[in-house]
Design a protein that fits this description.
The protein is built from 31 helices and 25 strands. β1 and β2 form a beta hairpin. α24 runs antiparallel to α29. The chain starts with 7 loop residues before the first helix and ends in a 5-residue tail after the last helix.
């Protein structure tokens, strides 16, 4: 034994001094900071101040409606960020499997975080290395040689030989040999923990749709701020009361479409739930939408295109032996080896044979490149042709090996010792005896199920594929071609190191397959694609892929990959099949279409409300809204957009979304606001004139008394009654017109198909009918109409609203069919087909 290790007392003392392999802590925002930044935003603070003022003034309903939506959105955002924080805090490269350490000279099993600096760890095949430190040998067994798989760290597929004194990094695996390791770098100082800390850094990569929405909302905020300043200044000059100014502020603040953020979060959540049933777990909510924008997919080979398993494709027998005999010997040799590997597993699965009793064995290592077993039947050897060549008695296998290697196959030679009693060691060193070649065995990497179909589907969808692998570029190119990818001329990662960014961009643009690439090379390729304006997804399974995944627009990890890669990824493929990306892409397009449709409805409402406020205020007829009346947006915007998003179709994203929004929203807002202002003015003047007439019905006077809180003899009764009556008419008209806009966006028949082509889906039309019934119920239910600040139905309301709706429909239909806005702005050359698909007058 190299050392008895630490005593338990020493280990506990070092643990108390902070010298343990504890996981990195900190680095992410605290819960208090998350709540502070998500809840107390600039615009939420405005709403909160207005809400407090309304509460102080006793306007509880107004306060609830004004602040409620902003608060709900803040809570939802906080939940999403806290969920992401918890996932980041749980991020660990190392598994929870116990490791063996020497304590008081005895082997003891502890969790990785229980290892302390100075511990001696026992390393066996299959063990994960959990700390950094040198290899220690066992004097009783001679020179210690460990085969370490560092593919998850470096991307190199071949195991690396580690001898006594060589460093072994945490996050790698022992695949062969037995020995000990001194724990030198633990906790935050170890390689695994440094990678974890890097992966912890939260990154936000906004999607194209999110950036467009942000632009629109910032524009709306600027307009609202300017309008608010002008109207509040006018209100102050006219000597309005504090209550009125607060109410006006609440309404103006409500113009900011906070509901869009809420809607996006809900749409992403619904989409993530749907995609989960297809085998993809969404970890970053906006990945639901982002995946549909991907136009280039970078993927590793092993574990992504291939399953990591090998299949036997051919056995070429020599020396006049019977094929059945050689295949049985080969299968038995594979079954009898104690240290099994993927090659042995493939041979045992494909060939017949039995398990022999092994008297002596030499396990395969990348330094030897051969393995052997001694049995009663003889000495059997498997290895690379070049490793066995000196002992094959001059038999030249070069041509056979080269032919198979050129096809991307792995080739091994099966041989038998000429002397059945030949030793496999000289002292402590493995030694090859003189051999008789029996067969050349060709093995192929096994493509994953559905890879060919998935690749074809992605290519048909316009997604370019690039393969980034640590394997030989020629081998990778052959496998890529088998998967249906046009491999072209492969490029080695070594050739990328000296390239400038411009030179790299040119190479990346014209190359499909990259071999012998390092983690840094993968990251540079992803960054190059982003510089070229591509929307990049990266699939990987190893730690070496983590940085590239974080730099891609969409990081995708295999469930069977390393924990750090899974947790860094935006999407995890739970069945280890990237076939799930195709339905995920369709779902993303459905989300984009639904959110885009919702933006039409939201912005039409905002534009209408803003123009009505400006028009009515300029006419000197009083402010046209109460805060509680703004709550009707639940029916006109909230419920419709939720269901329209849920029912959306997976159409391609509209690259001219902002232009389409302008073409729909501007005519809708202008015409609706003009008709709404007309309704408001008509009712306001009629009420002002009618209340001076002694023949006004008693029930009308009672209604106005109930909603204004004043009696007929009170000063201001007439003005207050005129205002509340006009507001009811305006809210009724705008609500019904908003229902009509849904029919323009999703027309069931050609009667409403002025903006786009008819949609055979009946659900939007049934939704409009249900919303209409709900609004009529609000009008005829005193409790609800009181809550929303409405007077309820009356004759004056009908004679003002119904004709206005007819005028509105005719004017808006003409504006869309004749493309009035396009003609005014000189945009009449836009192709009709694009308008019909992405939003515009249908032909």
């Amino acid at each position: 034994m190299p050392s008895p290790g630490l005593t338990q007392v020493e280990a506990e003392a070092r643990h108390r001094r902070g010298e343990s392999n504890a996981a990195v802590s900190g680095g992410t925002a605290s819960y208090a900071r998350i709540l502070r930044t998500q809840v107390f935003t600039f615009y939420n603070n405005i709403l909160f101040v207005i809400g407090i003022a309304l509460l102080v003034l006793g306007r509880y309903n107004d306060a609830f409606v004004s602040v409620g939506l902003g608060l709900v959105n803040a809570v939802l955002s906080s939940v999403q960020v806290i969920r992401a924080k918890r996932k980041l805090d749980q991020l660990q490269l190392l598994g929870r499997t116990r490791v063996a350490v020497l304590r008081d000279g005895t082997e003891t099993a502890v969790y990785p975080e229980g290892v302390v600096r100075g511990d001696v760890l026992v390393i066996r095949p299959g063990d994960q290395i959990v700390v950094d430190g040198p290899v220690h040998g066992d004097p009783s067994s001679g020179d210690t040689v460990l085969e370490i798989d560092e593919s998850l760290l470096t991307g190199e597929p071949d195991a690396v030989v580690k001898r006594e004194g060589d460093d072994v990094l945490s996050g790698s695996f022992c695949v062969a040999g037995r020995g000990f390791q001194q724990a030198r770098d633990v906790g935050e100082a170890s390689y695994a923990q440094r990678v974890t800390a890097e992966a912890r850094r939260p990154t936000v990569d906004k999607t194209p749709l999110q950036r467009r929405i942000e632009f629109v909302i910032r524009l709306v905020m600027v307009l609202v701020a300017l309008m608010s300043a002008a109207i509040l200044a006018q209100a102050a000059l006219e000597g309005l009361t504090l209550l009125r100014i607060v109410q006006i502020s609440a309404v103006l603040s409500g113009l900011v479409p906070y509901g869009l953020f809420f809607l996006i979060a809900v749409a992403y959540t619904v989409g993530a739930t749907r995609i989960a049933t297809q085998g993809a777990l969404i970890q970053q909510t906006n990945a639901v939408e982002s995946i549909s924008n991907v136009d280039v997919l970078c993927t590793d080979k092993t574990g992504t295109l291939t399953s990591g398993r090998l299949t036997v494709t051919g056995v070429e027998v020599f020396g006049g032996h019977e094929v059945t005999d050689v295949e049985r010997w080969l299968g038995s040799t594979a079954r009898s080896a104690a240290d099994a590997n993927v090659t042995g597993a493939a041979l045992a699965a494909a060939l017949p044979g039995e398990t022999w009793e092994v008297r002596e064995e030499v396990a395969f290592t990348s330094s030897l490149r051969w393995s052997a077993v001694t049995t009663d039947e003889g000495v059997w050897v498997l290895g690379a042709a070049e490793a066995l060549a000196p002992r094959l008695g001059g038999v030249d296998l070069g041509r056979l090996v080269a032919e198979r290697t050129a096809r991307g196959l792995r080739v091994i030679v099966f041989a038998r010792a000429l002397d059945p009693a030949a030793p496999l060691r000289t002292g402590d060193r493995p030694t090859l005896p003189e051999l008789e070649p029996l067969a050349v065995v060709a093995l192929a990497d096994e493509l994953r199920d559905d890879v060919t179909e998935t690749v074809a589907g992605l290519l048909d969808a316009g997604v370019e594929l690039k393969v980034l692998s640590g394997d030989d570029p020629r081998t990778v190119a052959v496998l890529a071609a088998q998967a249906g990818i046009d491999a072209g001329t492969p490029v080695s990662g070594h050739d990328l190191d000296a390239l400038t960014d411009d030179e790299l961009d040119a190479v990346v643009a014209g190359t499909t397959v990259f071999g012998r690439v390092s983690p840094e090379d993968k990251e540079r390729v992803v960054e190059s694609l982003r510089r070229q304006g591509r929307h990049v997804a990266m699939i990987g399974d190893g730690v070496n892929d983590a940085r590239a995944l974080k730099h891609a627009h969409v990081g995708v990890a295999m469930r069977s990959g390393s924990p750090v890669t899974r947790d860094v990824a935006d999407i995890v493929l739970v069945d280890d099949s990237f076939a799930a990306l195709l339905p995920a892409r369709l779902e993303g397009r459905r989300i984009i279409d639904g959110i885009a449709t919702s933006m039409y409805v939201f912005l039409a409402r905002v534009g209408t409300q803003a123009l009505v406020i400006l028009t009515v205020t300029m006419l000197g007829l009083g402010f046209p809204y109460e805060p509680t009346q703004v709550g009707l947006t639940l029916l006109t915007v909230g419920v419709p957009t939720f269901f329209l998003t849920l029912w959306a179709r997976p159409r391609p994203p509209d690259p001219n979304l902002l232009g389409s929004l302008a073409r729909f929203v501007i005519p809708a807002a202008v015409i609706t606001a003009a008709c709404g202002a007309g309704v408001y003015t008509f009712i306001y003047t009629r009420v002002m004139k009618g209340l001076t007439n002694p023949d006004v019905p008693e029930r009308v006077l009672e209604a106005f008394q109930r909603y204004t809180g004043l009696t007929v003899t009170d000063a201001g009764f007439t003005t207050a009654s005129a205002t509340i009556g006009a507001q009811t008419g305006l809210s009724t008209f705008v609500t019904l017109a908003s229902f009509g806009l849904i029919l323009f966006l999703e027309p069931r028949t050609r009667f409403f198909a002025a903006w786009t082509t008819p949609n055979p889906d009946r659900k939007p039309s049934l939704l409009v009918l249900a919303l209409l019934v709900a609004f009529v119920g609000v009008l005829y239910t005193p409790l609800l109409s009181d809550y929303f600040g409405l007077t309820g139905p009356n004759r004056l309301l009908l004679i003002a609203v119904l004709p206005a709706l007819v005028v509105w429909f005719v004017a808006l239909t003409a504006a869309y069919r004749l493309r009035v806005l396009d003609r005014l702005l000189g945009l009449d050359a836009i192709p009709p087909r694009r308008r019909a698909r992405s939003g515009g007058p249908a032909r």
